[in-house]
Design brief:
The structure is a homodimer. The radius of gyration of chain A is 27 Å and the shape is globular. By secondary structure, chain A is an alpha+beta fold. In chain A, 28% of the residues lie in helices and 24% in strands. In chain A, strand 21 and strand 22 form a beta hairpin. In chain A, the strands form 7 sheets. In chain A, strands 3-5-1-12-9-10-11 form a 7-stranded mixed sheet, sandwiched between helices. Chain A has a 5-stranded mixed sheet with strand order 7-15-14-13-8, sandwiched between helices. In chain A, strands 16-24-25-28 form a 4-stranded mixed sheet, with helices on both faces. The interface between A and B is large, with 52 and 52 residues.
Chain lengths: 773, 773
């Protein structure tokens, strides 16, 4: 580690300056000559049959250039997986949630768009609405979907009960495990839909060029190559004709992973009008676009007196809203988190992705991990209390260790879980103090996470490293950066490998036309997968440079090192040449240096939903984290103040400690919002608070003191030992706060968010029951 | 040849449609938010000292955003070669030609720019002007340049006599050769400055981004990587920060090879104003920008009775205008054309690039070849007449043949010269007919050309071929296309190699940030050098695809062929898979297909001006051509009508016969203008006719019937045997027309253009002398 010049060092974000000085361009900053504005007409019903759509009046409005409905589309259904193709980007038969897009307009300005949308006449026949997933699962509930192309059928879904997909795992002898237990504990936990809260509202801009037949798309997105594929498929255009361009984006958190109806409307409107078309969402539209899946989790665990878990049985209902989206992942992934956290071979897990007449739920940071850890780690504390064990000790007793094989036959390799728990606990090792009005408490939460994931069709990441004749380099990679610093990481890696300063390296990324393919910035694979690809490409360029120098100087290639813009015989800096000279020499020898590299972890890609059971290596590396927090609860108001949080994560190796710490801090605060304040209010399918005033996210003054603890387990496969960073912190903080509130005032709230009302009500219940802490 | 699917076929230009329907964007089509317009203040004197420049009034004008003079620049001198750094992009001391840029303005619109330029007060002290190169070479002539950085000194230049650079070659025993001759003939020939006549006036657009420190430049240009290097050097910015973007351009013909003061002014103005700045030239500005070098050629040749050349002695004066530009090439290249055309080992050649107070002369199609061939091949006809030999026979007698070693020790490899002469002659094999008022005549001209050239620092061309998971490909190459069809060629090559139709291949090219380096679209190297690089990259991708299939099907990799979007065992189309399947398989096997290739001919790159003598391989391949034309000369008006032209060129192998024929036709007409009508009128340093009305280029109605004859010698190194196409035709047509005029009316005009006035004057002279044909 000490040998690195740039890797492992605190380096600033390579685009930090342009983001601060305003020169970084976001989609809404883009303007094109003659550009039109687009808008979407949304359903005012949560469930209704579309009887007719009359666009005549809208089309006649001055300034309107095109109006489209589902009839103008290819009617190719979409879904992320082959078996989830349940959605048309503009439906023709019925609407299934309030806010669903039914028509789109392109016009000369946004005012005309608004007026035109009002002139579209849609006749609906309202249908019975179901918004509660448990109600939706009952026989006789309104059925939201008819069978669609690719649907897996009764084994994994049951549309008559609105079950889009079901996931079932049964490992070992669960009933036997419960029999071996000294204590069996079970409970139900609930979470709600929350919003990603990206600062940038969604915006999508398409420019179709009739000369070349190509369409260019700009939008905040986490996976340009996935978006390219979806648009290619849905518009029935060759991949080469769909170009997703790089653009900065203001936050993602999973919510920018998919292709949305708006993207396709922009493309189609642009094609029809022969102009660029930009569709800007309002904040309300952005709230409706996607939310985190709300879960109902029934969890039952057996434990011995010494704290050893003997069995786990989990049943999970996910409220997926009107279309499946990432539902299959959302109901699978919690099992991954649970099995990789605590040791038990007797593990049963059943989960349901249920349709309701709510907006579509999709990926959001953790993708089910937060909800699951809330249940799991709340229950761990409840069991620890009952057997009289310290919460830290019960976790240490069960925490996964290096080399362990999970029930699903996926192996844990590097693992610093124990160290994370110990270090987070130690950092906060002091009794909770009483405040004037309130009580203080301390709580711990844990989590695990993955680095790349096996579900679905995945491409490796590839990268190229191009050298200029002044010795500077350009790294060309498909990797996307949503603000975490992935681009900076790629520049660091090339800088390290080629022995040139970071300012000598530029990055060109996330453009489906220019860059080689990359899976995308999700499933925590950018550092692990894309980072490795960049390292391979840079190492390839390095070998080419060394070969040039070795031949020119008649040196042994293995003796050469690259450092300080020079390539020289190790220990003899005078025996060598500059990188610039080597590049020029490569031109002279007619073999310009172009490094090429690819990476994909060796996963069992055949694990798929159609086989009904998942077994095999599911990720390149697991990561582990523990968060300990201190809260103060005001017994009079029920208000919770998060005072301090210590988050320790095994990141394998911190390529850029500043970036890891920044991510850690974001993770803590994101979790804080989910636990304490964030809640969408609904009136049936209608979202009542889609704005940042009524929907309360943490702001600067809410921030706790944060201690970031980096644990380094040096993963065997990660680039320089690195793996995913700090997503576990965002998960572990959820149960940590819930456990700390219990520690402070003795009330156990099992439904998120833990609002003052719920605390006060619980405190009153305590009083009524005369329960003392 | 019969085995190819796409190569050698008549295929349309891949961007033809977008050029026709108007969707192809040219620099002036680009607009950016807040974009400013730039303008240049030009000197009204051909030679003057700059006493002072006062920009105060201009700066105060409303709408003006920046005014710059030489004092605002880095004052880094520029020149194409290290020893030609004689120019500042805005001079501070003196102006050396009428039209030289002395200040630049950026403002909100072009009207304000115009007004601001008028408000800049420049005080000049006029200096003596010299515009005739022979006058300039006299002792005591006004000296235009003081010694500058890199100047080679008296051996190759003599600034006191305004000689910028001199070139001298002396091979064999020239005096001995003349002694062996039966006839020694000598004469003087002159040519004038002509303009490239690109339909698009010059325009340059720069956008400097303060966040990243990068500048993007769009302009019609033939060598984006050379422009990148020049701007990097002159603006003292790293290469990575200078991005020359691809943009279509409306003609080049050598005139878009260089970096101009306007480019640098746009960059500097953009940097200062933080806005995009576009500078659009008028047609007059474009005329002033660059012209073809006018030559005075004294040529002396010895010939035996049987037509064998015995010796050649040439002295050439090139009027380079105020700065050197491509002068060193302009005075070297004619020797290459001469020595590779006709066999003689006794060859002396001396040439001078002379400064005059005229605008700068630079590269133009042929780069001296036209002027030289005019002299050489006029003299050949004069000698043939004197020894009573047929013009075709004397050429066949002396024409270079395959394998011959030139005096400069450069070897001719593939060579179909004899066939070209024979086929062109045969195509026009009939007597000239007399018209009513005129006389008809037939003439022949010959030429040779190169495919890639050794002069100066050159980079190889590199290319990448990226495969999509739908089996389509993108070729990424630095190659530039000025309309010849180079992009189409690259697409053809990838299509051929990968066995997929051309519509499955997209090209991404000529962008210094995105694409690997390429020397540029000049010195006739795109097909030969860049084409080979693309072929290498496509072949690399092909091998990777084959490896995937071989492994999957357990087939022998050598038995596999790619055709019709499939990869299969030769002869067994059912044993294989589609390219799409193979790409997806490559993803599964974690090695996505990315082809990589580079090419540079094996030239003697050490040949340089500083050694004073050039010996070694100078080009990858020589090409050869012959043109036979029929003209009708009106004896009353002196008007010449070009009736028909047959151009035969050895192109190695015609990758796309339609493109070769299109080039052939352009070459004939371009030459026609140079011989018959194009002439710039001057009043000292002032250009009098810089417009398409007074400067007469051929138009549609002037076009002759054209026969394109393709000769294929299958070059050993060219891609599929191809080499440079049809530049020889543009050269050979010059003497062909001159010789045909002599054949028609018996007058030999030795100064281009051959105007009616000159013909009438010569005809009158004939009458006076009583000379009969």
């Amino acid at each position: 580690m000490g040998e690195y010049s740039v890797i492992g060092k605190r380096v600033p974000n390579v685009f930090g300056r342009s983001k601060v000085d305003g020169s970084a361009k976001y989609t809404d900053d883009l303007k094109f000559p003659g550009m039109l504005f687009g808008g979407l007409l949304r359903s005012p019903y949560a469930h209704a049959r579309i009887l007719s759509i009359n666009t005549t009046r809208a089309e006649k409005l001055k300034g309107v250039k095109a109006v489209i409905t589902g009839e103008d589309t290819n009617k190719v259904p979409y879904g992320i997986f082959g078996f989830t193709r349940d959605q048309l980007f503009l439906p023709t038969d019925r609407v299934r949630f309030l806010g669903e897009e039914v028509a789109a307009v392109a016009a000369v300005d946004e005012q005309v768009v608004k007026e035109a949308l009002e002139l579209i006449e849609v006749k609906y026949e309202p249908l019975p609405v179901v918004t509660d997933p448990e109600e939706a699962m009952k026989v006789g509930a309104p059925q939201i979907h008819e069978p669609f192309r690719g649907f897996l059928g009764p084994e994994q879904g049951d549309l008559s009960r609105n079950i889009g997909v079901r996931c079932k795992r049964d490992y070992g002898d669960v009933e036997g495990g419960f029999k071996d237990a000294d204590l069996v504990c079970e409970d139900r936990f609930r979470t709600v839909a929350i919003n990603h809260g990206t600062l940038e509202p969604y915006v999508t801009l398409a420019r179709y060029d009739h000369g070349s037949g190509k369409v260019e798309i700009w939008c905040p997105n986490q996976a340009p190559f996935q978006k390219m594929r979806a648009i290619s498929n849905l518009m029935q255009m060759p991949l080469n004709d769909v170009v997703v361009r790089k653009i900065f984006h203001g936050g993602a958190f999973g919510g920018r992973s998919e292709t949305f109806a708006a993207d396709l409307c922009a493309v189609l409107l642009s094609k029809l009008t022969r102009k660029a078309v930009k569709i800007c969402f309002t904040r309300e539209d952005t709230f409706i676009l996607r939310q985190k899946h709300p879960y109902i989790i029934d969890i039952k665990a057996g434990v011995k007196k010494d704290g050893t878990l003997t069995a786990l049985d989990i049943r999970l209902i996910s409220d997926g809203g009107a279309y499946m989206s990432t539902g299959p992942i959302a109901i699978d992934f919690p099992s991954v988190v649970v099995e990789s956290m605590y040791r038990t071979s007797d593990f049963r897990y059943e989960s349901f992705e249920v349709y309701t007449n709510k907006p579509v739920r999709g990926a959001m940071r953790g993708h089910g991990g937060q909800q699951m850890a809330f249940a799991m780690d709340s229950l761990m504390d409840m069991m620890a209390e009952k057997i009289g064990m310290d919460p830290v000790d019960i976790r240490l007793r069960n925490a996964r260790r290096p080399g362990e094989m999970l029930p699903s036959k996926s192996q844990i390799r590097s693992c610093g879980f124990t160290e994370c728990i110990q270090k987070a606990a130690k950092a906060m090792d002091r009794g909770a103090k009483k405040g004037e009005h309130g009580s203080r408490g301390i709580g711990i939460g844990c989590s695990t996470m993955i680095s790349g994931f096996s579900l679905g069709f995945r491409t490796p990441s590839s990268a190229l490293v191009k050298l200029n004749d002044d010795g500077q380099a350009t790294v060309i990679s498909g990797l996307q950066d949503s603000g975490q610093g992935n681009e900076t990481m790629a520049v660091q890696i090339v800088s390290e490998e080629l022995g040139i300063p970071m300012e000598d390296v530029r990055i060109l990324n996330a453009d489906t036309e220019l860059t080689p393919p990359d899976p995308g910035n999700y499933a925590m694979c950018t550092t692990f997968v894309s980072g490795n690809a960049v390292r391979c490409a840079a190492a390839d360029a390095k070998e080419q440079l060394k070969a040039v120098v070795a031949q020119k100087l008649e040196a042994n290639i293995h003796d050469l090192v690259l450092k300080d813009r020079k390539i020289f015989v190790k220990g003899s800096p005078s025996m060598g040449m500059t990188v610039k000279q080597a590049v020029r020499e490569s031109f002279r020898s007619r073999q310009p240096v172009i490094g090429r590299g690819s990476y994909q972890p060796d996963l069992d890609m055949n694990t798929s939903w159609s086989v009904g059971k998942i077994e095999g290596q599911r990720t390149g590396a697991y990561t582990f984290g523990a968060v300990v927090v201190e809260v103060e609860v005001d017994r009079e108001t029920g208000q919770v103040r998060l005072i301090e949080a210590a988050g320790a994560q095994d990141v394998g190796y911190a390529l850029n400690p500043s970036a890891v710490e920044g991510q850690n801090e974001g993770s803590i605060v994101l979790g804080q919002g989910m636990v304490l304040t964030e809640d969408l209010a609904w009136d049936e399918g209608l979202m009542l608070n889609p704005n940042f005033l009524d929907y309360r996210m943490p702001i600067a003054k809410d921030m706790p003191r944060i201690r970031s603890i980096i644990v380094e387990s040096m993963d065997q496969d990660g680039p320089y030992g690195a793996k995913e960073a700090t997503e576990t912190i965002n998960i572990a903080v959820i149960p940590a706060i819930a456990n700390a509130i219990y520690d402070a005032v003795g009330v156990r709230i099992k439904e998120l968010p833990i609002t003052p009302q719920k605390i006060l009500a619980a405190l009153k219940g305590q009083e009524r029951k005369g329960v003392e802490r």
